Recover the amino acids of this structure.
């Protein structure tokens, strides 16, 4: 067996875990990072995406910081390190521009919502006020570290979500913000998925599925 291959027992437990987390993953939910400058922030967002059960991560990457292919991304050391290997388990796709990413999402009938500490566009909500189950296919956008979210993404989105802030500083760090926002969005969508098989509250399950996974050491 080569040095890099996991031992058979370990491989089995990884597969078991991958199977166990599948029903908890939020279907048709994508996190989009628009033009991130810092690879550490990309890694943190991918880690949050994986940990919170978001289906995919898209990166608008005009600087061409990422390789084209996910397989190559998984082998990129800086990304693997900053995401603590989450990039191996989370599908990541890069786009050259905001327009290209929006066109792809819209073609596949995804609705976008953006995040910003500032009021942007027509509809603005605080994170805890939003209903993130209203759209079957949802893309949640996070903006650049300095410039924030672009006007184009705002124009093509349904609403702008803000995490309420109480300090002297203008904004949260990109990675931190993604964790807070995606926690609320996935919590709501998992609760919905646990009750309904399909959208429009059709196909109600006789017994709701659990919404949290047993932790190591717990029965279940
Ligand atoms: C460091 S912030 C960008 C700050 C930038 N000066 C601006 O005007 O938005 C990076 C990204 O994190 C997200 N973000 C940070 N703080 C936020 C907050 N309080 N509410 C919603 N999103 C926030 C947004 O997606 C933002 O584009």
């Amino acid at each position: 067996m080569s040095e890099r291959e996991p031992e058979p027992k370990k491989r089995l437990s990884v597969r078991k875990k991958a199977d166990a987390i599948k029903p908890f993953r939020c279907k048709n939910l994508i996190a989009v990072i628009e033009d991130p400058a810092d690879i550490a922030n990309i890694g943190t967002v991918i880690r949050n995406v994986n940990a919170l059960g978001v289906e995919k991560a898209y990166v608008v990457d005009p600087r061409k910081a990422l390789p084209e292919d996910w397989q190559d991304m998984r082998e990129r050391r800086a990304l693997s390190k900053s995401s603590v290997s989450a990039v191996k388990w989370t599908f990541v796709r890069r786009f050259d521009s905001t327009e290209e990413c929006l066109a792809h999402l819209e073609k596949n009938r995804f609705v976008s919502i953006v995040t910003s500490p500032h009021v942007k566009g027509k509809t603005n909500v605080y994170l805890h006020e939003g209903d993130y189950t209203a759209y079957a296919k949802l893309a949640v956008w996070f903006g650049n570290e300095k410039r924030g979210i672009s006007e184009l993404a705002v124009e093509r989105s349904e609403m702008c979500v803000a995490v309420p802030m109480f300090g002297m500083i203008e904004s949260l760090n990109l990675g931190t913000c993604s964790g807070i926002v995606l926690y609320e969005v996935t919590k709501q969508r998992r609760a919905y998925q646990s009750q309904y098989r399909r959208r429009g509250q059709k196909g109600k399950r006789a017994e709701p599925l659990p919404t949290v996974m047993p932790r190591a050491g717990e029965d279940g």
Observations:
- The pocket of S-adenosylmethionine is lined by residues 115-118, 142-143, 145-146, 148-149, 162-163, 165, 170-172, 174, 177 (CB under 6 Å).
